[in-house]
Amino acid sequence: MSEDKKTNWWKNAVIYQIYPKSFKDSNDDGIGDLNGIIQKLDYLKDLGIDAVWLSPVFKSPQDDNGYDISDYQDIDPIFGTLEDMEHLISEAKKRNIGIIMDLVLNHSSDEHYWFKEAKKSKDNPYHDYYVWRDGKEGELPNDMKACFGGSAWEWVPEIKQYYFHQFSVKQPDLNWENPKVREELYSMINWWMDKGVEGFRLDVIDQIAKEPDKKITNNGPRLHEFIRELSKETFQRKDIVTVGEAGGATINTAKMFSNPDGSELSMVFQFEHIVLDQQEGKEKWDIAPLPFIKLKEVLSRWQKELYKCGWNSLFWDNHDQPRIVSRWGDDKEYRVESAKMLAVLLHGMQGTPYIYQGEELGMTNVQYHIEDYRDIETLNMYKERKDKGYSEESIMESIYKRSRDNARTPMQWNNSANAGFTEGLPWIKVNPNYVKINAAEQINDPDSIFTCYKTMIQLRKKYNVFIDGRFELLLPDDTSFFAYTRETSNEKLYVICNFYGKDAVCNLDDNLEDMELLYGNYKGNKKTDMYKPYEARMYYVKK
Ligand code: GLC
Ligand code: CA
Fold first, then answer.
1. Atom of ligand 1 nearest to the CA of 148
2. CA-CA distance, 116 to 126, in Å (whole number)?
């Protein structure tokens, strides 16, 4: 256990992300809900996770699946009630599972009371809660684009002004320059903390200090000032975990965000490794092969640079990313082997691991007809690229590989209709491979992907080297192996992963003969330097 376990429990924790809409439906309206999550808490307990990050369940018109909040202090009826939420928090607590809520502080919904007031007139007390620029219809303040396509400016004829939105038109940006906005948000956060919430994930937090006139979106000049104030007024009151989504984070800013003095956040999600397989300077839809040597370089740099002066979050998947086994593993012949290899590779590193629902089962990407996609980003891109003359085939290829809906298909619980997710009509189609890939098949199988994840969690809790060990990359230029060590004064861990689907020989100088094999994803393959496709091993020695 880490030395500072008492104050930084999250350094020893493994966090599980739930996308509530797609996790478990308890009333058969086809939409996952809070009572559904309660029904599955024992499953999560069995897996061994310490906390659950819930994607937003607040009241919302669901333009962006809840990332457009119209009331931060209420639950959307599709998910349940405030009482259900309180029930979830207490049922989770009984099982030593903390609930982490997803705070969307950069923008609200256009249906939030604040925005409805704000657009009434320039003198309305809420007007200045948002970011406005004077103008003439058709003459945009500048050419900034929204992340989901189109201009970042939207005209409101009644008051002859444009408002700024970095995401959809239904997600107007909040004005953090206004101290009243900050105070409102802090009191809302404190209200949730008093309800027993044990942490927060902060949506696009590095975009709050935008300065549209200078075309600054993330890392605005006042960003760290705002975050320190936010942290002081809220999070620092209790020993909770906070993770900021920071697409623009660099090693240097991450050191500030996750400063061990606790002045900002516990950690951030950075994306340097997860955008490597796209064409540089282009959009996420413009796919490129994964530069493997670079992947090793990037992950190892983050491991080394944050050692003792920051903290990493570890993730392959989330609700915005395609499924990792389809992306960097092999979701056909070696699905099981490659999913386990990716689990071993990630969970051996220093940081707090995040498991995205279904990742522990090796759930895969899907290929649907365009009518079956639900994600606003995917649908906007489809329209935009059609207009630009891209071929249907190339657009669909990008969608198959990158659509956020790959991660949002219903959780595959068993092989009954709709994967046991709902007895109604699911809001998004179930991946047809649920008949084979599902939780019921895996929970009691010692060789399953689920059991591999469970084992990784147990190992992290048993050996301190997983938490505190210094990271060292091995074989940086090797084109088959991702291998590294973790080391403390009295323990050493070797993690050796054949990243590809071919047999390979691992040429390490170190002698692993006398070490304990903590984990291997192939049976009986202990001491040889021959590795099978996607073979992964963890060796351990007490010094
Ligand atoms: C974050 C969320 C994403 C959402 C966006 C806007 O990137 O992860 O799902 O669409 O912010 O809130
Ligand atoms: Ca439901």
1. 10
2. 9
CA gap 119, 507 in Å, rounded: 66
Q: What is the largest CA-CA distance in the chain?
A: 77
Q: Which residue has its alpha carbon closest to ligand 1 atom 4?
A: 67
Identify whether 139 is a catalytic site residue.
Answer: no
Task: Convert the pLDDT of each residue in 6-42 to its tens digit.
Answer: 568 999 999 999 999 999 999 999 999 999 999 999 9
Distances (CA, A) of 462 to 48, 350, 512, 530: 13, 15, 21, 28
Residue type, 62: Q
Alpha helix (H) ranges present in 79-123?
A: 82-94, 113-118
Over residues 454-513, the pLDDT tens digits come to 999 999 999 999 999 999 999 999 999 999 999 999 999 999 999 999 999 999 988 888
As given in the structure block, the two tokens for residue 255 are: 């050191």
Taking alpha carbons only, the member of 257, 139, 233 closest to residue 181 is 233
Residues in contact with 84: Cβ distance below 8 Å, sequence separation at least 6, in sequence order: 33, 34, 35, 38, 75
CA distances 41 to 167, 206, 354, 362, 479, Å, are 33, 32, 17, 20, 41
Q: What is the DSSP letter of 106?
A: S
Distance 374 CA to ligand 2 centre (A): 17
CB 503 within 8 A of CB 454: no
Would you give the end-to-end CA distance of the chain in angstroms?
17
56, 388, 403 from 396: Cα distances, Å? 28, 15, 9
Instruction: Enumerate the β-bridge partners of residue 494.
Output: 485, 539
- Using CA atoms, how far apart are residues 286 and 304, in angstroms rounded to an integer? 30
pTM over 0.70: yes
The token pair that represents 472 in the structure block: 């060292």
Measured in residues, the chain has a length of 543
Structure letter (DSSP) for residue 148: T
* CA 474/CA 512 separation, integer angstroms: 14
If phi > 0 it is left, if psi is from -120 to 50 it is alpha, else beta; for residue 219 that is left
CB 204 near ligand 1, within 6 Å: yes
Q: Are 320 and 65 in contact (CB under 8 A)?
A: no
- If you measure from the C-alpha of residue 204 to the centroid of ligand 1, how many angstroms do you get, rounded to a whole number? 7
Report whether residue 67 contacts ligand 1, using a CB cutoff of 6 Å. yes
Please give the domain boundaries of the chain with CATH numbers for all domains.
3-107+179-452 (3.20.20.80), 113-164 (3.90.400.10), 469-542 (2.60.40.1180)
Rounded to the nearest 10 degrees, the angle between the axes of helix 335-347 and helix 449-462 is: 20
Q: How far is the CA of 65 from the centre of ligand 1 (A)?
A: 9
Residue ranges of alpha helices (H) inside 11-81 are: 34-39, 41-47
For residue 167, give the ligand 1 atom closest to its CA.
6
Alpha helix ranges (H) inside 407-539: 439-442, 449-462, 465-468
In degrees and rounded to multiples of 5, residue 151 shows phi and psi of: -70, 155
Q: What is the pLDDT of residues 63-110, one digit of tens each?
A: 999 999 999 999 999 999 999 999 999 999 999 999 999 999 999 999
